[in-house]
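Thread amino acids onto this structure.
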């Protein structure tokens, strides 16, 4: 019975592809998202706010950053989030500027990871030939790269409380900046509704494909 099952699996490319995809998503949830949040925490601490350190967020331990809902969204949509790092702006010398630097650290970390996985994908893919094991590994790196790009694009949207809003609103007068922050928890509900209804899917997918294409172009140059 086990032999028959193994024969079915070995001959079913779609099944293997699904397993590789799920493995890559799990890798993203337990490795990529913690690095994203760690980047936020590290920059915040460097800029003078020790709140993330006190809260135990200056860590790459996935359990310190895991959000069950955000992790589920990664598997379902390719876009998701971890538990946000708490930052206290009053501890910064230049609150709006430093908050923007903390915000951009997460997406930048994702883009750097995307390049790393992109190079690994291009390298393994160039060596794979008809070796199904290497093909599966190449797919794994491709999915990890793709989700990192998706996370960067999603988080750079200028919609509170996403990282992009911290960057965009840093240019606003303080009274408007803090007013927008007051309504973040309500605005994000609207973002989730737009995601679940698919309204955001087209622009997000277009931007993701654009950035993914640029990264693939760069990483394939050596190969």
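Threaded sequence (223 positions):
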């Amino acid at each position: 019975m086990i032999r028959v099952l193994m024969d079915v699996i070995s001959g079913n490319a779609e099944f293997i592809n699904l397993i590789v995809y799920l493995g890559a998503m799990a890798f993203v949830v337990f490795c990529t998202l913690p690095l994203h949040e760690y980047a936020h925490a590290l920059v915040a601490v460097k800029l003078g706010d020790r709140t993330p350190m006190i809260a135990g967020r200056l860590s790459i331990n996935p359990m310190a950053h895991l959000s069950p809902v955000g992790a589920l969204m990664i598997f379902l949509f390719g876009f998701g989030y971890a538990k946000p790092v708490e930052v206290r702006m009053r501890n910064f010398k230049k609150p709006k500027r430093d908050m923007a630097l903390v915000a951009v650290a997460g997406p930048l970390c994702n883009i750097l990871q995307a390049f790393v996985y992109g190079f690994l994908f291009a390298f393994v893919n160039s060596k794979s030939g008809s070796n199904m094991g290497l093909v599966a590994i190449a797919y794994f790196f491709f999915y990890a790269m793709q989700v990192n790009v998706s996370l960067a694009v999603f988080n750079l949207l200028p919609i509170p409380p996403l990282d992009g809003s911290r960057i965009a609103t840093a240019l606003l007068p303080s009274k408007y900046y803090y007013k927008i922050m007051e309504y973040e928890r309500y605005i994000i509900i609207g973002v989730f509704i737009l995601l679940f209804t698919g309204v955001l899917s087209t622009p997000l997918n277009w931007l993701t494909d654009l950035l993914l294409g640029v990264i693939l172009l760069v990483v394939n140059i050596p190969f």
